[in-house]
Design brief:
With 263 residues, this protein is α+β, with helices and mostly antiparallel strands. It has helices at residues 7-14, 28-38, 90-106, 153-158, 172-195, 203-212; strands at 18-25, 47-54, 71-80, 111-113, 117-120, 123-135, 138-148, 219-224, 227-237, 243-247, 250-254, 260-262. The protein has two domains: 7-204, Bira Bifunctional Protein, Domain 2 (BirA Bifunctional Protein, domain 2, 2-Layer Sandwich), CATH 3.30.930.10; 215-262, SH3 type barrels (Roll). A hairpin with a 2-residue loop joins strand 8 and strand 9 (227-237). The protein is globular.
């Protein structure tokens, strides 16, 4: 842990979470799912798991996560004690809050793609995978985050899509400091977002989303598998975090599912 995270960062995180850092793990999300199922530890406080190497990580819709020494991988397990209906906005809400953290750290423009992808320096830079587990009448959230801190040529070769990163370059002796700072700030912001999760986005938050929307104003297709579910001009999100597509005089709202947006 000493080689991976700075001591000050570790102590700050430990005030809020039980922290576990692994040299290698299959998946930080899967590790936490097993903890809940086995009830291996008391789950009264959040658990934060980070890994230097993740060998079986997954993104949304079961996509493979390509690991890299220059990426930050972590997952948070949080007991959710608020009304279940609030969970409808969880994923885009966390994405919006994480965007501000990353923009502040990188001093770069961070764009957002509905429902929960973040873009910087020309490509996808961060993704969020949220999972809800019900156990003995309790609700637990697992929020997995992957962030490309700097470019990795091997990852770029393996992914047939534009790959972004927070920084165009990080010196090796600076990586530990950058990683520690972002992990500390991001986990703190996610915990705050979950504990104060509203029922709806505020007008100001909807405005923030619109200003950061990577597909703002574009005509998009909503695709599920190989099927086009709908098409229309992207006019942002509504209070429930649903994407709004305008097709002629018809405005349609779509919630998070297995569909994805494409120009």
């Amino acid at each position: 842990m000493k080689d991976y995270l700075e001591t000050e960062c570790v102590e700050k995180i430990k005030k809020e979470c039980l922290l576990k850092v692994f040299d290698e793990i299959d998946s930080t999300n899967e590790y936490l799912k097993k903890l809940v199922k086995r009830e291996a530890i008391p789950l009264a406080q959040p658990v934060l798991v980070a890994a230097q190497r993740q060998i079986a990580g997954k993104g949304t819709k079961g996509r493979k996560w390509f690991d890299s020494p220059t990426s930050l991988k972590f997952s948070l397990l949080i007991s959710f004690k608020r009304e279940p209906e609030r969970l409808a906005i969880l994923s885009p809400y966390i994405a919006l809050k994480l965007r501000k953290v990353l923009a502040s750290a990188a001093k770069e423009e961070i764009k957002i793609k509905w429902p929960n992808d973040l873009y910087c320096l020309g490509g996808k830079t961060a993704g969020i995978l949220t999972e809800v587990i019900h156990k003995k009448g309790k609700v637990y959230l697992i929020i997995g985050v992957g962030i490309n801190l700097a470019p990795d040529p091997e990852v770029i070769r393996n992914i047939n899509l534009p790959v972004g990163s927070l920084f165009s370059h990080i010196e090796p002796d600076e990586m530990k400091r950058v990683r520690s700072l972002i992990l500390s700030c991001a986990s703190e912001e996610i915990l705050r977002a979950v504990r104060n999760l509203p029922q709806e986005f505020s007008a100001e938050e909807i405005k923030d989303w619109s200003q950061s929307d990577t597909y703002k104003g574009l005509r998009l297709r909503l695709i599920e598998g190989e099927r086009i579910v709908s098409e229309g001009q992207n006019v942002g999100i509504d209070k429930k975090g649903r994407i709004l597509l305008q097709d002629g005089h018809q405005l349609k709202a779509f919630c998070i599912g297995e569909a994805s947006l494409r120009p």
